[in-house]
Amino acid sequence: MQVDAIIKKIQSHIFPRRPRVKEYFLDYDPLHCGLISRPRFARSVHACGVCTLTPEEVDALADYYEREDGNIDYRTFVHHVDEVFGPTELEKTPMREVETAGASVPPAFIPNPVEDEVHLHAVMHRVALLAKTRGVVMKYCFHDFDRADSASLIVPRRSGKITVEAFKRIFPFTKEFNTDEIDLIIERYLTKEGTIHYQALHDAVSDQIVTKQEAIPRSDLIVRPDGLTWKNASVSIIDKLQAKAVEKRIRPRDYFKDFDPLRKGYVTVPKTRTVFSIMNIQISDAEFDQLCGLYCRPQDGMFHYDAFQERMDEAYTLHGLEHYPLARPPMISPDTTLVARKSCIGLTAAQEKQVEIILDKISVRVAELGMPLKQPFQDFDRVREGHVTMNQFSRIISTLDLALSPDEIELVGRKFCDKGNTTLVNYLDFIQIVDPIDPEFALAVKEQSSVYVGNTSNQYFDKSGKVIPVV
Contact at 8 Å (CB) between 458 and 452? Predict the structure, then answer.
């Protein structure tokens, strides 16, 4: 008796149900030596659920895997059975071509041959055409009457089979086909148990339905060039990332180490892209390519994040400071993160002069009205982000009655666009110019909100200005 045929029979039962064959043998092998007795081997094989195996086939398996001491090597048996899911120890043969899981399993049902194959082909073509036209899925029509071992609403196990009477009653196209044509379909998909294998019918109908993918209409975003120049365009990508790291108080090396377990200081380019996504640092494709051109080694294209981190650390300290004890490291100031926080539009000299004239008009008008200019802007800025849209900025400036054209108002708004777009206007910087706070008033507010500090006596001079002697 051929053992390969028996293994394939077991695989055809194991593959659709996905049990772990090894688990049925472990209870009889407490020492995990991989060997069990012949009776226990037969009991474990039957426990897998393969009820179609005869005692002769089980004995043939036991004879094939029997060792010299009379025990059965069940590990080799499990290894041969599990090959239906894919080859094992693939790391030893990395160039091996791997078939899809279950490719070696024979089909569970082979359609029966009929006398009039031409007529059957025409009938199946009509069934496929009607299913496609009416949007009918054949297998869903028969699921409720499935003849499975545990067919119920709680255990929805599908065997793909149904009785002949139920098939005739539930067939969705009884009006379009006569009795002889339906009997021809039944003859084609009749099993040995006398049931109809509707799953095979569904697969045959689905194979004949050729669905042509229609092109999905697209509307690509094509940004119209506005001809504007941004001040941050001349800033290098290193300075931008350095400002971003200082603003967020992050050290990129800590994130790169998660992808470098050997601490070699190098990671791949896709992992570098992932690190920037984790740090929530937005970087364009062109800037990322520029960064890779600076820190990727030419041999294999690995990103040298150690050198990149040293460049980021220059915002906090100086390398080799122990060699220059009198050197002063740079102190972090608001200007350090200015590149990361603001991206303003570069105006020409003529535009700057025109904006200055318009700002003087607005400043004089605000002083005449004596109105707080900050309140109208905060009415549109409920979350107090310090920005309003260009339309809201135009509405507020129009209420000052300065006889300014929409182009002039837009020019003033672009002066204070610092988010890298022409949509949001920083009204706080605008108010600081047209309606500045009185320095004395600002000092009074600062003193009022500061902590009280009482008068302290001088430890070196008395009230008359004489030196206090040391006791």
Answer: no
Residue 414 covered by a domain: yes
Burial 409-447 (b: 16+ CB within 10 A, else e): bbbbbbbbbbeeeeebbbbeebbeebeeeeeeeeeeeee
User: What CATH number has the domain bearing residue 274?
Assistant: 1.10.238.10
User: Which pair of structure tokens corresponds to residue 337?
Assistant: 């993160």
Rounded Cα distance between 88 and 334, Å, is 59
- The answer to whether residue 454 sits within a structural domain is no
Q: Is residue 139 part of a domain?
A: yes
Query: What would the pLDDT profile of 153-204 be if each residue is shown by its tens digit?
Result: 444 456 788 889 999 999 999 889 999 999 999 999 998 888 888 888 998 8
Query: What is the phi/psi pair of residue 78, to 5°?
Result: -65, -40
pLDDT (tens digit per residue) in 263-297: 999 999 999 999 999 999 988 888 999 999 999 99
The model scores a pTM over 0.70: no
CA triple 381-384-386, angle to 5 deg: 80
Amino acid at 425: V
